[in-house]
Fold each of these.
Amino acid sequence: MSNLRQELKAQIIEQLNLEDLEITDINDNDELFGDEIGLDSIDALELIVLLEKDYGIKITDPKEGKEVFYSVETMATYIEKHS
Amino acid sequence: MIKTCYINGISSLSPQSTVEEENFDFQQIQTFEKPVLQVAFKGYKKLIKPAAMRRMSKSVKMGVFTAASALIDANIKEPTSILTGTGMGCKQDSDIFLENLLLQHEELLSPSKFVQSTHNTVGGQVALYLKSKAYNFTYVQGSASFESALLDAQLTILTEEKKHQILVGGIDEISENTIGLLQLDQQIKSETSLENLKLLDYKSKGSIIGEGAHFFVISEEKSQNSYAQLIDLHLENSLATEEVLLKTKAFLAENKLAIADIDLVILGNNGDVDFDAYFQPLQQEFIEIPLVYYKHLVGESYTASAFGMQLGVKILKSQHLPEAYRLNNVQPQKTIKKVLLYNQFRGKNHSWILLEYV
């Protein structure tokens, strides 16, 4: 597992108060907003803030956000491409 | 037909709750040696799913839990109104949001902390929990917040020609920031050694502070679980100490009662030497009946009177006068039928609540 993916999982758990989850509970390709992790619309806002605050990447197109935040893998790929 | 308000369900979280059990127990008294009395309860998972709880601050957890628990107690699934009173709202998340606002120069703020920092968050979260679209209103009126919500409940029942199951409660939480401000303002006692059970002995400025959530289900229909009737309540914003007795007599007279008709008085004494004088006229006037107080056990807060009301309805239902709550040694000579509560906060927001045995 790359450091970035590991780091993202830790940030998601901390920022979204997912107290019952450990880093090892989240797989790189798990669907963040599906049944596996179960995030909701407020979490999406938190992830947008997280991306801008910690990686300096601003997401303005909601359609783009849906693809970027699909999984930890898609988030990491997007960060690698844009930073 | 004159309608009556029955209290059919209750639930309380206070510094008297234990880690496992929410509602206070007359026998098991929690004692404190500090001026800040916090709720130790951890059993929220009994009623709130962990996924729903992850964004909830303490006041939201306390509020949602006691609201749900009061409905279960009343055997009601859908309230017709959700009325909440809070003096300070979701203070912990407000503090975090404002601190982040300063630290991050008003940019890139957590939306969760903003959403959770408003005063009506508890009422909103209760509605989300119950999937309720019922009338939902939050009263933020300082130390008259709970009474204002209760007044709305009473007026709704008395004026609307339909059946009601009204969920009404008072919620306030302590934050580190609040403690600092209240210490600066001498609203918290500064004694280095302090025992809460001796609160009235110190004769010094300030009090001990507390937090909690207390919900009631109120209806015009009596149920098998009815605790008491809410007969009336009255609020006065500002009074001199010598006016308290006159206002009390006037309130009783409006309800066709006199001093001699009251069987028990619950007072909001908090040990502040500057303001406990407001309770003296009633302590003297009602010298021959049992007097009860509660802030030595739960601390002062803007919605502490909601705990006082829970105490009143529990005493009416159980007919038991818990020793730790007694302000005098007078034993009840007959069934406790009419209970009068009087409270004030630093000389303001005087409230009277009249309860009756069912």
Amino acid sequence: MTSTITPDTSATTVISVEEQQFNDLIEADSRIEPRDWMPEGYRKSLVRQISQHAHSEIIGMQPESNWITRAPSLKRKAILMAKVQDEAGHGLYLYSAAQTLGATRDDMTDALIAGKARYSSIFNYPTPSWADMGSIGWLVDGAAICNQVPLCRASYGPYGRAMVRICKEESFHQRQGFEILLELMAGTEEQRQMAQDSVNRWYWPALMMFGPPDDDSPNSAQSMAWKIKRHSNDELRQRFVNMLVPQAAVLGVTLPDPDLHFNDETQQWDLGVIDWTEFHEVLAGRGPNNAQRLQRRRDAHEEGEWVREAAAAYARKQPALTNEREMAAS
Amino acid sequence: MTTPGDSAAEIWPLWEVFVRSNRGLSHVHVGSLHAPDEILAVRNARDLYTRRSEGVSVWVVPAVAITTSDPDAKGAFFESPAGKNYRHASYYSKSEGVKHL
């Protein structure tokens, strides 16, 4: 396509030179960078997706930090702290990516603590047992990786680059979770039950992380046309379940889906029906821990106000301090 | 021209972060962050971008201090090398088969 502006507007839409350039870059599977022209919808869609993703990382610190003080050994405690620190880092990479699109950190934070922005529904579930640290790593981070690996090729450069860094670190998260469950499954009967009970609670919510089924996913088609998203929700969910089944066998846990069976024709694992009512309830703020998660984030933000103020005050004083030092030295 | 991620609405300025992964290699751009001053920018860059021994040195540069070529003129601005394939070794094919060339 070389034509840019078509004089005859009766049949074709007028496309600006910039828009044509944008379309060509997307078509060529190239990347869009911050200073490039982009359609307003593309920008909005990215800000929504990237900021939701960032919020998920930040809220996602809570269910796990819950266990830092009660980790069963010093080693596990150190690992858990490293993991929670990673989640904070992931949130920051993503906020930075959203900021390149003109979103401000304050606006995003305000939207989150005011309850206006969404984050992954999975983090509204409680973590009552140590085994949940295993299930979160294996199932929740596993689902996240499945979702995020294709996002490394997202058409928006800063988002893709942030995802590359995140994916590298997520694989540690998934493995340490798997190992927690593996050790519990090699333990006492009580420990095995704790692991199985935890897998039972996290399995379905983890499958819901891929989002609503394809025929009920309003933003998907446009997102895929813009090459932000590369695979449909159902496709990724299927891929995830296919990977989980053999992993569950290694662990010796069962997956809580009586209808799960191998389909000889498609060579895939067919799953039972997902309870989407639960998904929509949790998204609407009526999950087990929504209020608590938001309250904690709000408190942390307000209690951190003096730190932000002190840092800003110190920065303002810097030129004067440098002058004083130089005067003293001369 | 405004810098992406830097706006009057952000309280802290934007810094671009460069990490040298090993002695003998260049510092490479790894991302950006907001921080009140250069000292905190370096510390935050360490925490954010080198949690797994990714670097032996970190640079932070205020994003406003970076001047870039005009993105809208990228075609024309980088046009000069086009058609000058004699600047590449692969242009000289007659010496093919001759060793150490």
Amino acid sequence: MSHSTQTNKGGMSPLMVVGGIFLLLGLWLTFQRFYGGLGAVTNLDDNNPWGIWIGFDLLCGVALAAGGYTTSAACYIFGMKRFHGAVRPAILTAFLGYALVVFALHYDVGRPWRLPYPIFVSPGTTSLLFEVGLCVFLYLTVLFIEYSPVALEWLGQKRLRNAVHKLTLVLTIFGVVLSTLHQSSLGALFLIAPSKLHPLWYSSYLPLFFFVSSMFAGMSMVIFEGTISHKNFHDKMDEDHLSASENVVLGFAKASCVVMCGYLALKLFGLAMDDNWHYLGTGWGAWFLFELLGFVALPALLYGIGAREKNVKLIRWTAALSVLGIVLNRFNISLVAFNYHLPASERYFPSWQEIGISIFVVTVGVFAFRFIVTRMPIFYEHPDYKESHH
Amino acid sequence: MQRRTFLKLIGSAGLGAALPAATAKAAGNKAFTGYPDAMGVLFDATKCIGCRKCEAACNEVNELPKPEKPFDDLSVMNAKRRTDAKTYTVVNKFVPVDGRPPVFAKTQCNHCQEPACASACFVKAFTKTPEGAVVYDASVCVGCRYCMVACPFSVPAYEYDEPLTPRVMKCTMCHPRILEGKLPGCVEICPKQALLFGKRSDLIKTAWERIGNEPGRYLPHVYGEKEMGGTNWLYISGAPFQQIGMREDLGNTPAPELTSGALAAVPVVVGLWPVLLTGIYAVSKRKDRVAKEEREAAVAEAVTAAKEKAAAKLADELKKAEAAGKRLADAEARKAVEAYKQELEEKAKAAAAAADESGDESADEKKE
């Protein structure tokens, strides 16, 4: 695609055509959704009130956008300056990720124009969903401010850009606090339904599982997104970004390996706490082990090997596996192991329209990302602000 | 500060996060045991004949849309049904023991004392009224459907086909009628007195009296007395509840306690993270500064040493050059002196030779 985008500027590459089709399809489904209600396009029912618009768009979207807080914390708080060139793409991915999560929620909730209600009209503070909503709202604002210097540099607003840039550290700390809260409370959402979620996935540690897994989800997504960006936008990248991305791949592989091992230990601890060992012998146990061994233990091992042997290619493949693992985990908790007690006829499977809207949302994200990185200083430093960091 | 208050603060601040399940109670700020005068309904499964009159009455008093099949069509009971957006209550038929008469069980909102739906709602759309009913306010509802995820009895339903104003739909215990002093629709119509309306505390006594009076007819379990912290709709039955479509694995923990530990973690994170992260930032910044200073000091030292060495070398060179210059000058002088000496010697020789010649001439002259 990198080749075609360069040679065919103004023309249409095949991927752009496919993307365009997804966008048109999405617009048609949007019309159907708001004309006929949720029932017209979804397979949701009274037993299965949450489908893939929550399981994928919200849970996976938020987890995979965690790269924003992990990368900026590593660079600005822990002082790993060699990651500097990777902060901007990570912040952009996070900002777009969260913006799309909120966008997608407009399809899922019954009366989207009331989405500000929990914060401004009738706050239900006993709800974990209130915590999620408040934190996502605040964090989206933080990410917008963190991202704004890019747009301001592009627009030539030097004074405003420099003023915002001074807030970097405060915003980074605020971002970590808010991310800790809502990443964990997305898991805590399910604490209220112990009778509906299979015991192997239900645990009082759910908030901890979600937060810890968001760390390696975010880092893996940064590596994964970097892989794709390198293929498509290599010509945009400056020396600082290229050297940083190499550092990030190796550094994040090592960090992910460590965090994944910690996560495995926590999972074992959770099993022991609730004495759930006997479930491991059942079909659900096999599925649980498939998720844990195939999509956490294996990537942890591969990340470890990749980091030690400086095998960037292996690390990039492992990142894709880890991202898939996060999707599997969130699907298992919100869809597969949720309502496990119901007979097959009462279980949920997404309609093609639901999948269509999810693809539409991702496509919007890809187009927005492409629009921004081809115009604004994401993969390179703006010449007017070189060496102005820190 | 009183010890109690202090412990509560500690509980809500830290322990709740460290031990989510165990200290859930410590994290909450009060223990709620239900409104004392709350009303409820006792359902007696041994008396229900499955006539569906309660379903019809419910449909009428709540002005719900008429179903496809009329309420006197009992064939709908051959399949298990649940409450939905057009039905607040359903009666299901079960045959726990083959060959024995069927047992009927009525389903509707159980009006929990500490409702999961109200705890889960992020806009406070649900209220537990002092009269016992759990009521819903559609005017703030966003339609997130978390109440439906949270409800352990899977009661709330949603108007999925409503594009603009979808509502969550569930039994209200006929709260408006109760306020008017009337009975709930289903209780009023029941021809067999399978439903009994009264104060919850009285109903529990009645239930245990019935069980005590006829132990062969009932199992010694009042469903709803303790389930999920207690509900205002209570059930007694001769068949195990598990066999008449009611879950017996829900536990007795009120729903809000399940999440209070996680909520208690919020102040910990908000209080601890900024301090800790600023500290880490300061440490890493200081490390950088110290490293920079050390680097600069080392560089300065190296530069000084190099400079000194260079200066010494220069001085040495100068000295050498001076010496060499002197040597050179001496040699030149010596050469000049030698040359002068030679010149003088030659001049002297020439003078001597000239003197010899003139002497000879005078001697010759004398001889002549």
